[in-house]
Amino acid sequence: MSGELNKAREFAEEFLDLAERLQDPALLVGSYHALGQTLFFPGDLTASRSTVEKGIALFDPA
What is the pLDDT of residues 7-50, one digit of tens each? Predict the structure, then answer.
């Protein structure tokens, strides 16, 4: 994993940690998406999909 992608994943994990502590649904959706992207690009497609699906499950367009 490149240094920049590794750094992005660390930030995404911190974002998810904060969103979980705050229990903010909008932040959780965004953080799962961000983390899923950092898993997708190096090729961890299974983990990426499962992570993004967690965010989709929380999405409420209302």
Answer: 999 999 999 999 999 999 999 999 999 999 999 999 999 999 99
| Cβ burial, residue 35 (10 Å; 0-12/13-18/19+) | buried
Which residue from 30, 4, 6 is spatially nearest to 18, judged by alpha carbons?
A: 30
Q: Please tell me the predicted confidence (pLDDT) of residue 60.
A: 87
Virtual CA dihedral for 18, 48, 43, 9, nearest 10 degrees?
0
Instruction: Answer whether 11's CB lies under 8 Å from 3's CB.
Output: no
- The CA–CA distances, whole Å, from 24 to 37, 49, 52, 56, 59 equal 20, 21, 16, 14, 11
- Tokens 């979980």, residue located: 20
